[in-house]
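Continuing the batch. This is chain 6 of the set; chains 1 through 5 are on the previous pages. Same settings as before, nothing changed between runs. Recording input and output for traceability.
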Amino acid sequence: MAPPRPDAPDADAAATASSPRVLKKYPNRRLYDTYTSSYITLADVKKMVLAAQPFVVRDAKTSEDLTRSILLQIILEEETGGVPMFSAPMLAQIIRFYGGAMQGMMGSYLEKNLQTFTDIQTRLAEQSKGMLEPAVINPELWTQFLNGQVPGVQGVMGTYLEQSRQMFQQMQEQMAKQAETLFPSFTPPKR
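Output for chain 6:
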């Protein structure tokens, strides 16, 4: 199946603003945006991610969802192109979780931790509004903000660490329940 002409209308392009944008991936590795009826690059997809614009990537022939693989490609490019976020030992540890009993719980744990961290970042950004004037930092307000933030940041980070500890504890409790189900004579060690 030949890819559609960029100027040809596409049925997926008529999607409403509330539904995710549909991107089609063709065998020639090209991505086609059905909303704009044009070919796009991974850099364009990254811009959509940064803008929090919902999208889904589908194989043009099979309609298989390829969104995760495209996102992983973007992460790989980011990791090899600049200052990496993940160290080699961290990546090795993540790989060790695949196929093990902890795989499902670890994904959920990491996702919740990342969401909590994002929420904290949002709160700090909201607190710092007004510190910046258009293209100029207001030194007086910035100094007041920083002086008042040390205890505030410590409190926010303390909350984050406590939530992370609680999530890890819940994960351990879930593991203990699963172990009891699988091995009725198993008794977890006392703390």
